[in-house]
Design brief:
The chain has 179 residues and is mainly alpha-helical. It has one domain: Ferritin, core subunit, four-helix bundle (Ferritin, Up-down Bundle). The chain is 64% helix and 2% strand. The chain is built from 6 helices and 2 strands; from the N terminus they run ββαααααα. α2 packs antiparallel against α5, α3 packs antiparallel against α6 and α5 packs antiparallel against α6. Keywords: Iron, Iron storage, Metal-binding.
């Protein structure tokens, strides 16, 4: 009987591992990448748009919140804006690793975002808007993680880590919301 692949060493397909040396132009994407790369890039670009809208919303709230005693809320808005920017940067980096192009087009940003922009002037309305956006982001990430499954562990890990921070943000906003 003729053997078509090299024997497995420790359960690994050595031929497939060695084949990873080919197609250097593909960078981090090897032949073993199991996800639909274009679909993942599209999901990541939508997540990128969502994070950028969240940065803008938190920044607007940071600069416009006023009033005695609102210093801690203002600081929370700034911290969240910075963390959302870190998420956006990580998503853009992953898109490039997958040989995609991150979409920063401001003309289509809000249409592609899962969360909405808010220009409220009332502090409680700002907090409520941010809580809603965080919950939307959490559910979006949950669905993206489920869609990717185990086909792209790096992207899955990234999305899980971002979702964990979004959950912290939701808790922060809930704690600030006047009941």
């Amino acid at each position: 009987m003729e053997q078509t692949t090299k024997p497995l060493a420790h359960g690994f397909d050595v031929q497939a591992i060695r084949q990873a040396a080919a197609n250097l132009d593909d960078g981090a994407v090897t032949d073993g990448y199991a996800a639909d790369r274009e679909a993942v890039i599209n999901m990541l670009n939508d997540a990128l748009a969502t994070e950028l809208v969240c940065v803008l919303r938190y920044k607007r709230h940071y600069y416009t919140v006023s009033g005695v005693g609102n210093g801690p809320i203002k600081a929370e808005f700034l911290e969240h804006a910075q963390q959302e920017q870190e998420h956006a940067d990580s998503l853009a980096e992953r898109i490039v690793q997958l040989n995609g192009s991150p979409n920063f087009n401001p003309a289509t940003l809000t249409a592609r975002s899962h969360a909405e922009y808010d220009d409220s002037d009332d502090v409680q309305a700002m907090i409520r808007s941010n809580l809603i956006a965080e919950r939307v982001a959490i559910e979006s990430y949950r669905q993206m993680i489920a869609a990717i499954g185990d086909k792209d562990p790096t992207t899955k890990h990234l999305l899980i880590s971002i979702m964990a921070v979004e959950e912290e943000h939701a808790d922060d906003m809930r704690d600030l919301l006047a009941h």
